Structures are given as structure tokens and as C-alpha cells.
Write the C-alpha cells for this entry.
Amino acid sequence: MRGCYVFAYIEKIIKSCFLNRYGGDFGDSSYLRCVNCGAVYASNFRLYRCPKCGGLLDVVVRDKYWAPKGRGVWRYASMLPLKNGVSLGEGMTPLVKSNLGENLYIKFEGANPTGSFKDRGMALGVTIAKESGASKVVVASTGNTAASAAAYAARAGLKCYVVLPRGNVARGKLIQAALHGAELVMVSGLFDKALEYVVTYGTKYAYPLNSFNPWRLEGQKTLAFEIYEELGCPDYVIVPVGNAGNISAIWKGFKELGELGLCKKLPKMVGVQAEGAAPLATAWQKGLKTPFFIDEPETVATAIKIGKPINWPKAMAAVRESEGFFTTVSDGEILKAQKLLASKDGVGSEPAGAASVAAALKLKLSGTVVAVVTGHALKDPDVVEINAKEVRNAEELVELLER
Ligand SMILES: *Cc1c(COP(=O)(O)O)cnc(C)c1O
Ligand SMILES: [Zn+2]
């Protein structure tokens, strides 16, 4: 009998060491489920793919209940797998009634601490990284994931490595990652190549915080909760789609509101891609069940310049289940929407963020529409042209005012 206790004690110690280092244990509060084959696994910080079929995993939080309290993503702790953690006061972003459409609302994610929605995910992701005993985090990024991971890692005292496509990162984002003290690693090629490096090498040495990490997406689902608190459940939610994690996370958030009986009718999810980087929208238009991967995506909206979105199975399911659709907008339409949004609504968006507004203007959907504007204008100052005609000399001021 006594031996038994000793054994159990030793087992407990071994397990706690092992789990801290390699796994993680939330007791029974959540588990992982494969979105492809449905296999379930005990919660594990380090499991990103289904060992049986290679599918993506979802976090399933047991005994969720609706009890918003406090600020930031942790306001929704009762819906999350973790109850508290690292925060920079992310979330709580403005929901602005737009002047550009009848029932159009802008969810301005550029107002997050580092200027994009990525901060929601990093609050959870960096907390998990720390809990798992990691001292290093790694991300591939078109820029915003790098800026966000760098800031949250700094906050948590972790070292951050960002792998970026050389020459394809907007200036504002690069400056942020450098300022927050991340190691910058440039690869020749585009984002998809950078992600390959992280998947192949990064995960061996550091904790990966790209959106194939299901814990990060738990933070991003809080965007749905904020829309619900302010507006109820809209008819459409339009989301710019790159690696396709965000649209999946937002849909998961709404589904959970549905499960709790809070959303009676769930919104239709509309995924927007740029014409030159549209693996999902192309597949959708062709009626294909798998994406139409492209090797050389091209668009001014660098945050969605992605040819092989890793979360495609989740995103396709989100659009299908919600009875929404994928669509495309041209670079011209994106830049026009960016300008309209800035000049008529006072909302400054980077190009990718304005893709959702470009789609809203084009589609003219009926009902309540929320366009998620994913990142801030200052991220990418170089796309905004200030032509000579718009800049005057001081002597012209009076003449200008008198016009
Ligand atoms: C990351 C990002 C996207 C794309 O989000 P995914 O989850 O990769 O689909 C869109 N817009 C901005 C501004 C981003 O930073
Ligand atoms: Zn599986």
C-alpha cells in the first residue's frame, strides 16, 4: 500500500516535469480534436497536428459559460482554455458604424496594441509558450505576426525569432519587430517559404506561434464575442483571408455563442482574398473541395499575399458551415476602399485590412454587415502616395483657406 503511494508520488513528479517541458496540462478543462478525422487528444501545448491523420487540431473548452468580466481577451476567460495570462490590453477595439453603407460596421482591429488582430492570439499563444516552459518563440510572418509576437514575447520575457520574406515586409511592421528586440531572419522567397522553415526547423528549437497553433486561435475567437456584446449577431462578417486562421477563429467564436444559445442565428462568413493571391476564392468559384494553391501570389496587400494557406481546411469548413462564401477584390479596389475608409469614416487601414471593406462595397449585402479591418494604416506607409499637388508652401495657406 505504502509503495503504491510512493510510486504515485514519483509518477506525479515525473509527469509534472515532463508536461512542463514537452506538453502541458490543463487538467480536464479542455482537450484537442482533429478537424479532419475527429480523433480527440488530451490537452497538449506541443501537439499541432493529428498523430493519426495529420489534420489540424481545434481546442475544445469544456464547461464554457458566458461571463464577460474585466478587460482584453481575458474578459472572456470563462470561454477560454486558460483563465489568465500575458496581456497588453488587446481587444476592446472600436466597432464603428460606417458612412459607406446602410448597415455596415467596421471592426477596427488596427486599434490593438501593436496595430493588428494578431495581438488577440499572441496573448494566449505567448502565455501557453511560457506555461510550456519554452524560453524561445518562433514565427513566420508577412509582418504583423512578427510585430505582435515580438511585443508579447518581450512582455513575457521570452526570446523571439521571426522569419520573414525578404523584401516583402511593410516598413512599419519590420520596425516594430526590431524595436521589440526580436531576431530578424530573412528568407529568399515569399511567406509560404518562411512558414516552411518554421514548420521544419523552428518547432524543434522554439515554441511556434503561427496560426496552425490552435491555442493562438483561441485568443482570436474573442473578436466574435466583442461583436456579439456590442451588436448581437450580424448577418455577415467579412474577413480578409491570408493564412486563413482568423476567419476560422472568428467562426469558432460565433459557433460557441450559438452552442450556449446566445446567437440564435449565426452570421454568414465571407472570406476575401486579393485577385492575385486567391487560392481559396478560386477553389470556391470552381466548386473544388481543396484549395487552388499558387506559387507566386501577387498583391499590394502584403498581409494576405499567401499562396498556400495552412488553415484551409478550417476556413473552408467555416465558410461552408456558415453558408457564406469566398470572394476576390482587385488591388485597385483595395486601394480605393482604403482611401474611402480613411476619408469618409476616419479609419486608417493597411491595404489588407481594407480588402473586407472593398468586398462590402462591391457585394452590397442586405442585413447587418461587419467588415473586419485587420490592421492599421501606419503599418504600411509606403503604399500611400502623397503627390506634389497635395503639398503646398506656407505662403499659399491663406489662398487655400479662402477657396
Ligand atoms: C494576418 C493578417 C491577415 C490574414 O489573416 P489570416 O489569419 O492569416 O487569414 C489579414 N490582414 C492583416 C492586416 C493581417 O495582419
Ligand atoms: Zn485526424
Summary: The pocket of zinc ion (ligand 2) is lined by residues 34, 36-37, 39, 50, 52-53, 55 (CB under 6 Å).
